Each structure stands twice: as structure tokens, then as C-alpha cells.
């Protein structure tokens, strides 16, 4: 009985409940995501082109959600290759037929990006960035947040 209780406590602590969840859908591309509103509480000014939104947390983390037209006909592997820049250490990457995931560190910041290729040559993406010192807080949130990424 005791081990089941501990597992249930960990799961409820690491996954946001529906009451604390905010769902965002981008009007231009239909890109949508759900995330814990109490953590990413500060919405930034949206870009003029209406391609997405960014929210920040009090401790320096950010969550960006956006769509874009794939005018350069990029592949999932192309998106991964773009992440490999000077000063960036890619520690995880995977690509499928219509998706790409890349994660790593950029100086003292951990990043995780998932992109999904959608209808009408669109790419739907979510990018989480957080201080390496906050790894224990944000790592458990990455999976539940990116699992809600969706778009037509």
C-alpha cells in the first residue's frame, strides 16, 4: 500500500492538473498547447506577425509556442541540425517522418524543442528554456507539456 501512495503523490506533483492548466491555440496556424498557468504566468507581448506566444516564469524559464510555414521545405533532420550552433551542446535528438525533438544546453540554460509537421506545409513547435539550476523543477514538466502540442 505504501509504494502505490508514493507513486500517486509523485505523479500528482509532476503533472499539472486541469484546474491549473492553460490551453493556448494560435489563431494563425492552429498550433495549440496546454501548460501549467501558475508556473508560466507572465505572457510576453505577441509578435506582430501572430505566429505564436511566449510565457515566462518568475525563475527565468520560458515557454514559446509557434507555427510557421515550411517555405524552405525543411525536414525534421534539418530542424535538428539548426540547433547545433557554437556554444550549444545537443544532448538528445530524434526525428521521425513528420516530427523532430532536440534538447541540450546553451550556456547555463537547458532547452527542449519539439516540432511537428502539419497540414498545408506548416510546422508547429514548442520550445522550453530553463536555468540548469532549475532542472529538478522543469524536467518533469517537459513531457506532459510537449505531449499536448497539436496543430492541423
Describe this protein's structure.
This protein is α+β, with helices and mostly antiparallel strands. It has 3 helices and 9 strands; from the N terminus they run αβββββαββββα. The chain has helices spanning 2-14, 76-83, 135-146, and strands at 21-25, 32-36, 42-43, 52-56, 62-69, 88-95, 99-106, 109-117, 122-131. Strands 3-4-5-9-8-7-6 form a 7-stranded antiparallel sheet. β7 and β8 form a beta hairpin. The longest helix has 13 residues, at 2-14. The radius of gyration is 16 Å and the shape is globular. The model is unreliable at 1-17 (pLDDT under 50).
Topology order in helix (H) and strand (E) letters: HEEEEEHEEEEH
Strand content: 35-45%
How many helical elements?
3
Task: Summarize the biggest pleated sheet.
Answer: 7 strands, antiparallel
Helix content, binned percent: 10-25%
Residue-averaged pLDDT: 89
Unreliable spans are 1-17
Class computed from helices, strands and strand pairing? alpha+beta
Sheet with the most strands: spatial strand order: 3-4-5-9-8-7-6
- Strand tally is 9
Question: Based on CA inertia axes, which overall geometry fits?
Answer: globular
**Rg result:** 16 Å
Q: What is the rounded distance between the termini? A: 44 Å
Amino acid at each position: 500500500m505504501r509504494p502505490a501512495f508514493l507513486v500517486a503523490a509523485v505523479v500528482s506533483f509532476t503533472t499539472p492538473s486541469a484546474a491549473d492548466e492553460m490551453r493556448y491555440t494560435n489563431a494563425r496556424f492552429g498550433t495549440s498547447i496546454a501548460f501549467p498557468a501558475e508556473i508560466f504566468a507572465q505572457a510576453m507581448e505577441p509578435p506582430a506577425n501572430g505566429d505564436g506566444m511566449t510565457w515566462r516564469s518568475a525563475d527565468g524559464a520560458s515557454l514559446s509556442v509557434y507555427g510557421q510555414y515550411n517555405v524552405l521545405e525543411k525536414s525534421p533532420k534539418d530542424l535538428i541540425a539548426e540547433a547545433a550552433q557554437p556554444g550549444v551542446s545537443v544532448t538528445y535528438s530524434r526525428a521521425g517522418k513528420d516530427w523532430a525533438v532536440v534538447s541540450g544546453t546553451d550556456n547555463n540554460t537547458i532547452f527542449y524543442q519539439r516540432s511537428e509537421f502539419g497540414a498545408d506545409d506548416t510546422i508547429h513547435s514548442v520550445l522550453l528554456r530553463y536555468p540548469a539550476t532549475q532542472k529538478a523543477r522543469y524536467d518533469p514538466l517537459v513531457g506532459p507539456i510537449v505531449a499536448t502540442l497539436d496543430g492541423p
